[in-house]
Amino acid sequence: MSTSDQTELCYPHLGNSSCRRTVRPHSVSVLLHIILSSISVLTVTLNLMVIITISHFKKLHTPTNFLLLSLAVSDFCVGFLFIFQILLMDGCWYLSAGWCVFHTVFGIVVTSASIGTVVLISIDRYIAVCDPLHYPTKVTPNRANICVVLCWVCSAICHTVSFKDNIEHPGEFNSCIGECATSTHPVTQIMELLLSFIIPVSIIVLLYVRVFVVAVSQARAMHSHVAVVTPHGSLKVYRSELKAARVLGVVVVVFLMCMFPFYIVLLLAGATEVSLSSLVFVLNLAFFNSCVNPMIYVFLYPWFRKSLKFILSLQILKSGSSVANIL
Does the residue 278 lie in any domain? Predict the structure, then answer.
């Protein structure tokens, strides 16, 4: 075997039993490593700031923010998943088969929990805008926390069961050495598509369309002074909830824009052959959403910008900082 042929193998010393790797110009490879590494560090850092902020400041312990905390935790985990994407840059898996299964299952659990959290955020905003008077009694911090825990537990259990054969026999579905392949039953794949994409996206879109319709009608009512009978305090609360709905609406739209291509490619993969580069691109785009979310908070949430100053200036270490009013 020639030297040029050997350099295209993941494990040249294993010959034909080794998988082939993707060969790129050195400058392109370095650039991709720098980009993915930067995104990974930024994703982990920014989401850690969100986690610290909502966990530390008691003024932020609201049902909506607990849902944002869940989303930040999933996004924080995705930041570490970028490390595996960097390792898979040339199409070769150099870690053990067990780590391959962990990477796959953990990534799907985190992504599924993230989608479930976005559904909960949509439900939260729907109740807050469409039924503001009963929102405080219907949506409480304890109920929000219970929903978040159930979302994560159900995601973990369902996908652990789905990948039971892969977990018990790691590497069984690899066609060559250096591959990271997993497999699930076709029925499971269809259920996964329904539960993790079609049904959640349908719920999210329907709820936010309803929120938008109600928001527009309320805005017209306020402009025409029809809402003059509404107590001033209630009107102020409603405007606050509406503003939160707009911010989280941006989060939801960006989320759908990043996730749609990934699931569309997965659908196409079942009918036609999809290139590895296309699959890697849409997967990284889906992961990139985890970096975008905290950036949205920076630009649209004044309390997050204020909390960042507290954290970076180390004022958060002072006694009593948890009760500071950053709203």
Answer: yes
How far apart CA 138 and CA 115 sit, in angstroms, is 22
pLDDT for res 156: 92
Work out how many domains the chain is built from and give that number: 1
Beta-bridge partners for 20: 9
Mean pLDDT of 251-272: 75
Is the separation of the CB atoms in 101 and 166 below 8 Å?
Answer: yes
Residue 5 has pLDDT above 50, yes or no: no
Of 121, 283, 289, 107, the closest CA to residue 200 belongs to: 121
Cβ contact 267:193 at 8 Å: yes
* Residue-range definition of the domain harbouring residue 84: 30-323
What is the arithmetic mean of pLDDT over 264-288?
Answer: 72
Domain assignment present for 2: no
User: pLDDT band at residue 209, thresholds of 50, 70 and 90?
Assistant: confident
The two tokens of residue 203 are 């719920």
Closest Cα partner for 164 from 94, 104, 215, 207? Answer: 104
Radius of gyration of the chain (CA): 23
12 vs 257: CA distance, rounded Å: 40
Paired with 152 in beta bridges are none
Q: Specify if 21 maps to a domain.
A: no
The pTM for the full model equals 0.81
- Side-chain half-sphere of 34: how many Cα atoms within 13 Å? 6
Does the pLDDT of residue 228 top 50, yes or no?
no
Q: What token pair was written down for 118?
A: 């976005």
- For 142, counting Cβ atoms within 10 Å of its Cβ (0-12 exposed, 13-18 middle, 19+ buried), the class is exposed
CATH of the domain at 117: 1.20.1070.10
d(CA 226, CA 66): 34
Residue with tokens 């009978």: 229
